[in-house]
Amino acid sequence: MDKKIFLLLWTSLVFSVRSIISSEGASVLAQPHCNFEYCISVSDEEISAEPGLCVVIPCSFMTPPNFKPQYLLWFKCESSRRCGNSDIIFHTNQNDKINLKPEFMRRVSLLDPDVNNGNCSIRISDLRESDSGSYQLRVNGLLNGYSDGFTFTKKTSVNVRGFRQKPTMTFPDLTEGHQTTLTCSAPALCSTSPPGISWVWRGAAEKEPLINGSITAFKNESLTAFTHRHLSTLTFIPTAELHKSNITCRIRFSDNTTTEETVDLHVNYVQITGNADLKESMTLNLTCMTSLSPAEIQWIKFGSKTNQLIRTSAALNNNTAIYLQEDRSTLLIFNVTAEDAGLYICSSKHLNNTIKDEVNVTVMSNQKSMTALLIRISTLVILSCLIISILWKKMKRTENLQEASEMVACHEDPLIHDGLAEADYQNCIPEGAENGTET
Length: 439
Ligand SMILES: *[C@@H]1O[C@H](CO)[C@@H](O)[C@H](O)[C@H]1NC(C)=O
Ligand SMILES: *[C@@H]1O[C@H](CO)[C@@H](O)[C@H](O)[C@H]1NC(C)=O
Ligand SMILES: *[C@@H]1O[C@H](CO)[C@@H](O)[C@H](O)[C@H]1NC(C)=O
Ligand SMILES: *[C@@H]1O[C@H](CO)[C@@H](O)[C@H](O)[C@H]1NC(C)=O
Ligand SMILES: *[C@@H]1O[C@H](CO)[C@@H](O)[C@H](O)[C@H]1NC(C)=O
Ligand SMILES: *[C@@H]1O[C@H](CO)[C@@H](O)[C@H](O)[C@H]1NC(C)=O
Ligand SMILES: *[C@@H]1O[C@H](CO)[C@@H](O)[C@H](O)[C@H]1NC(C)=O
Ligand SMILES: *[C@@H]1O[C@H](CO)[C@@H](O)[C@H](O)[C@H]1NC(C)=O
Ligand SMILES: *[C@@H]1O[C@H](CO)[C@@H](O)[C@H](O)[C@H]1NC(C)=O
Ligand SMILES: *[C@@H]1O[C@H](CO)[C@@H](O)[C@H](O)[C@H]1NC(C)=O
Known about the structure:
By secondary structure, this protein is of the alpha+beta class.
């Protein structure tokens, strides 16, 4: 009769413990292991856990009806021996002068604080590889009113393996010039200290860390009663240069170990390259590149005269050619005229989002350049004429002096002034020689 009730109670206990355990993802409890009327149920299989995360050691126990449980103690020691006072990692009596193993301080907690519920499951957080080993339970209480205790012989073993979960990164579609936010979530932790989250640029962006971005503070989301998800967000404005560069999110745990995840950024962009300052009859050669796939590139000219959006194919003459390649479109206009000047827009459609780039093409007309040339030539001509005439005058003056001395002989007048010289000279010059000097 007593035994029947006991078994019934026992199965219901195991059942409820089982349901908690499955929600925590830990292993399933084995059949109870009994000594006298002290029974314990723990996992037969080794419990695997990851460093940095936490583990729940599922456990339930029963004591004889004349025993009243007061405190629960957990030990960790080698599987071959019985654990002793130096192996205590957890004690529900926190007032007692008990020497807990220092490395377990503040990392162990009982899931159900009421020891009378027979729930001895504990959670160990901030796991380290050194936490691997065997764990043993003791219950202290009153047997028929007298202090007593019982150490369960069955142990449960935990293996903390060096495998780390990677962080998860999420981000929306990146478009050049449009502010965006990347999110990195650390693996779900039941840690008491938050992990360090850092962002590392690789590739083209490496030289310019954070490209004008900003990291917002951690977020701390509760997933279950024990686990919290830690997030870091990075807000920045993507550029075409960032396309195909790598970004890494690195998580540093309390034990200084790290785990990271790298993603290849895809930035939606459209970019025009080519010479936009032309002279008449040159060839306009513009290339429009895009990261969008498939690239539906369209060239539009915003005419300087018409002030209208014009589709290239419809509006331009036979001098135009467009070569479409996988990720780019090349626009060629041979023998450009002033009419070809204007704003050229390259646009590419991506879903319902159109991205574009534009370039202002100027064409210097040959007429203008001809005028400029004429002006330059005439300036040159005028200048050289001036120089020549000055030189000529000088030459003429020396000639005059010479002829003036001849004139002196002619007129026998010793007073010679520059102003008078010519008149005097004319008077004296022999006929026929006059024309030669005038020209
Ligand atoms: C053990 O403790 C957990 C956490 O408080 C609780 O959800 C669960 O019901 C308890 N199990 C039993 C058998 O009391
Ligand atoms: C996260 O929040 C929980 C409560 O929601 C808190 O107990 C825990 O200490 C916080 N962790 C950090 C690292 O801030
Ligand atoms: C990005 O990462 C991949 C592999 O993770 C690597 O092959 C590639 O070279 C990286 N690119 C740059 C620009 O670092
Ligand atoms: C950086 O961002 C600020 C606004 O957040 C903006 O005013 C500034 O021009 C940006 N600098 C560069 C180099 O993009
Ligand atoms: C982690 O590394 C930092 C420096 O890199 C050091 O100051 C700190 O003591 C280390 N912590 C542990 C737990 O090893
Ligand atoms: C246009 O420019 C591209 C690169 O700038 C060049 O490869 C191509 O040969 C040029 N085409 C013509 C017709 O000049
Ligand atoms: C364009 O070229 C076609 C033949 O290739 C010719 O029939 C047509 O007249 C040309 N149009 C112009 C505007 O030159
Ligand atoms: C360039 O255009 C001008 C005027 O449109 C024309 O006279 C000339 O023959 C053209 N030259 C070439 C090489 O097509
Ligand atoms: C694109 O279209 C979807 C529905 O068709 C709409 O929900 C979304 O807001 C649109 N996005 C933009 C950038 O217009
Ligand atoms: C294009 O350049 C010309 C000359 O520099 C200027 O007058 C015009 O305003 C520019 N147009 C645009 C749309 O930038």
